[in-house]
Amino acid sequence: TEAPAGPLYRVVGSLLSITCNTSAPTTTFFSYAMYSQRVRNQEVSLTHVTPNSVVFEIQSLQKSDEGEFECYVKNPEKGYDGTYNAKTTVRVIDDSLTVSSPGPTSLSYDEGGALTLTCRASSNTVQHTHLSLTWYLQKSGEDNPRPIMSLDRDLTLIAGPGFEGRYQDGLIRLDKVGEGTYRLKFAKLKLSDQGEIYCRAQEWIQDPDRSWYSITQKEAEKLTLSVRPKVLQQGQDLSLSCSLDTQNLEEKFFTVAWFRGSVELARIGPSGILSVSAELSARAERGELQVARRGVRDYSLVLQPVGTEDQGDACGRCVTAETSNFVPMLSPCVIIEGGFSLDMQNSLTVKEGDRLSLTCRVNGGQGQLSVTWQHKATSPPAAAFTNVISLNQDGVVEKGPAFAGRHVRAARPATDTFTLELDRVAPADAGVYQCVVSEWKSSTAAPSLRLIGRNHKVTVGEDATLICQVKEMNVPMVLTWTLQRVDFPLDTIVTVYADGSISWSGVQRRYQLKVESKRNEVLHYLLINGASHAEAGSYRCSVSVFQDGVYRRLLQSNQLAINVENPGNSKWNLELTSALSVPGSINTDIALKCSVLTKSSPSSRYAVTWQLQKEDGNTTILSSDQNALVMFGSQLEPSFRQRLGIMRSEGPTFWLFIRHAHISDRGSYTCKVVEWFQASQNVWDPLTIASRTILLTLTEPGIFNSISADTVREDVALRCGFRSGASGLSYFYKVSWLYTGNLSSTKTLVQLDHTGLLSYPEDPGLRGLQRRLHLSRPEQKSSHLGIQTAQEGDSGTYKCQIELFQLDHKGQWQQKASQSSSPITLTVSGPGMNQGHRNVDASDSQCKTLTWIIITLVIFICLLSVVYVLILKMRRTGKKPEKDFWTEQVSLNTKPCMED
């Protein structure tokens, strides 16, 4: 039984999670020795992850939870073998992490301006901890924030998706200044940077197992950033640049078009040919309009000078030449305003406590005008403009947050004059003041409210969209979504206030909000994700305004009914994908994968059952229900159950693991998946069923299909070849050559082991032969044994022995198989012959018999010849010879029965 080594340091109020594992061979029962009352209150939980592993969790740690936790495994067997309990020490520490972001909570900058934001994060934890910090951008209408820049616990800078290029170009930086100050710097702001920006800090501690654990995280107050588009005055030059944001640019052709509103101004094609609209053709001929491609993905448009006829939103679009689909372009829109100018005194000195009076005059303004007075302090140098007071086109005055308690007035004494008065100025009021004037067109249209929808009739699990269309609403408003169910009172879902704050009243997890602002209307979207019967009913949006200190309902939309029906099997088809067959080898780990290809709803849950097809039917191996509760099949053998594992990953994808596969594990495995949908808030019903069959084939790497050997005369060469079903980089072979003499036992001549080590076993009787041996491996699955100048004593039986080894996950060598070849008989004959003429016979018994007969006959004939010569000499001389016999050395040359 194993549990994490302590002590584990965790923060008050955080989640405590301890894993306990056991190697018990049968079904294991776990228990923890603390907090039975809190378990009943569901404050403490114990969850089976696998049959031999559990996770113990405390949802919110308390100071009193500090101490020693014990995991105890009940032993169902009679005997005891091993340790049945494990202890972990937990230390509960205070949460001392502080995160703050000084400065105003609302900023407004011009496009292309520089911005610096500061975040302070520190911790007073006694233990050694690390801090990581990330800046996020939460854009309107998006569910998840976008990371801008991160500094992880190892002080590594990481740019978020979409900000990598600007970081590499040095346009975005994150610096750590001092002990706990982090500064985020934008060199050039883009329109896409506006939204809510905030920093989040995490505190990490290293557990005794050397892993890092996040003990707490906190966020600073969010800062709302508004980025104003470029504004040009009459007579100035307009220069627009844009970049294509797509992949494989070199393989595609693009056409870039520039628009003012919905009217196309100019177009440049893939070949660089420029086409201009009729109204700008004359200006293009005079050189006032220029469009060019500056790089692989960069295009530019220059219009000089601009006039009142150029007013509107100038933007760039791009289409592919093949599909005519729009491709996103990183191109801001530029607002070209009418031709009026502003005059304002350049400098003014006021004594502390006196009144500040400023005048702003408008030259050439037409229609209704609004003014916003702004102030920028001299310290710090990078301070941004903040609103002092504004006077809209209807005469409504609104003070800025920093001047809400001050005596400040804005007036329009003449049609072309705006004034600002600030009483009792202080040193902090010093700085730069500016007036921002906007021109408005009058509109006689009355405010209207209309509710439209997409997918009025949906199936359980489908998405639905409701759109509340608000037109001509020029005052701050509050929008409320309501739902009227059958036989239920009216239910308020969510309220969106004028300052952007949101108040949820119902179940939020299935609803999402999105706001889209257009020129004369605002579209409020209510998105229903994975609708259930609880979301069925009549929806309505209403608008209220805050007047005289109270909220007054101004408009109410029409009702729109959303009907939610149960899905039918004919409409939704659950599709799975998997490999048709999976090859493997015995004694290795096998992984079978089954993935969901198409599904009915993102909110669906899935149950999976793995079955093995046998002759007597399918046998259930493992199953995991829609709540991820795992159960083994009742017919499984205990030895097979210990080698099984199951896991589900994103997709979802279901895995079946078989450890140390046996040859009996091969067969057809069926992955059966059931999709469940939520019919109501707490009721789940099965929707569709699908299955896939995977054929598992296993080979035995120790079975050698064939082994061959032959001989080569003169210098003898014995060859041994083999084939094996084992493959992969983890398999290696050991080759040994064995020798059996005529009157001796079998001995090892030479061996080349699986690590490449060549060795000759010590044997005095084999030293002469071992000196003349030559072992080679021309291929992985062949071995050659050469005997130089074979001698008569080399005769005997030879064979090669092959052993298969595999490197396991612990780095240890494991022998998997062993087999020997059939014996090879080698006969070396011809005593007294010179070494250049030896006879080697390894196979033909008839050839050997004939050779001995020929040798015997030659010897007999030679003896008869000697006797005959002696008799003739004795008769010729009549004397007795001095020597009884004389010998003559005879060289015998024998021919082999078979030529090589």
Show the helix and strand layout.
Blueprint: E1 8-11, E2 16-21, E3 29-32, H1 36-40, E4 44-50, E5 53-58, E6 67-74, E7 85-93, E8 98-100, E9 106-110, E10 115-122, E11 129-138, E12 146-151, E13 157-159, H2 164-168, E14 172-177, E15 181-186, E16 195-206, E17 212-219, E18 223-228, E19 231-232, E20 238-243, E21 254-260, E22 263-268, E23 274-276, H3 278-285, E24 289-293, E25 298-303, E26 312-320, E27 334-336, E28 341-344, E29 356-363, E30 368-377, E31 386-391, E32 397-399, E33 408-414, E34 417-422, E35 431-440, E36 448-454, E37 457-459, E38 464-471, E39 478-484, E40 491-496, E41 502-504, E42 511-517, E43 521-528, E44 537-547, E45 550-556, E46 560-565, E47 575-577, E48 581-585, E49 590-598, E50 605-614, E51 617-624, E52 630-632, H4 638-642, E53 644-649, E54 653-658, E55 667-678, E56 684-699, E57 704-708, E58 716-724, E59 731-740, E60 746-752, E61 758-759, H5 767-771, E62 773-776, E63 782-787, E64 796-807, E65 813-820, E66 824-829, E67 839-841, H6 845-877
Parallel strand pairs: 1-7, 9-18, 19-27, 37-46, 48-56
Antiparallel strand pairs: 2-5, 3-6, 4-5, 6-7, 8-10, 10-15, 11-12, 11-16, 12-13, 14-15, 16-17, 16-18, 20-25, 21-22, 21-26, 22-23, 24-25, 26-27, 28-29, 29-34, 30-31, 30-35, 31-32, 33-34, 36-38, 38-43, 39-40, 39-44, 40-41, 42-43, 44-45, 44-46, 47-49, 49-54, 50-51, 50-55, 51-52, 53-54, 55-56, 57-58, ...
Question: Which features characterize this protein?
Answer:
Immunoglobulin-like; single chain; seven-stranded mixed sheet; 900 residues; 67 strands; mainly beta
